[in-house]
Design goal:
Layout: E1 3-7, E2 10-13, E3 18-25, E4 35-39, E5 45-51, E6 57-59, E7 67-71, E8 77-82, E9 91-96, E10 103-104, E11 118-123
Parallel strand pairs: 2-11
Antiparallel strand pairs: 1-3, 3-8, 4-5, 4-9, 5-6, 5-10, 7-8, 9-11
Amino acid sequence: EVKVVESGGGSVQAGGSLRLSCTASGFTFDVADPGWYRQVPGNECELVARIGTDGSADYLDSVKGRFTISQDNAKKMVYLQMNSLKPEDTAVYYCAADAALNKYVYCPRPNHYWGQGTQVTVSS
């Protein structure tokens, strides 16, 4: 079965850290550039970070210097290390096997390899 599953969300205080993990089942993250998106109710689904097949990374401006995306050598896992978290980082975070665009109307994209999301809550 082809599946993408996120884990690692939770509640932290501002300034804290969380590490999100994304596991690919039935495929590997080498067919496209995987990434992490987030969405707050009423807002668009925005790209937080994307990692290329060469290991290069793109980040949302507001998370640069605080978040780091990485991938395991087997291309089965993608991680998002989130440090110095802020209340405005509160959202549901989604892992996508193909982070093609910077924004979508909704997360997750139907009929694509996306996970169901993990909640991140940062309190002040």
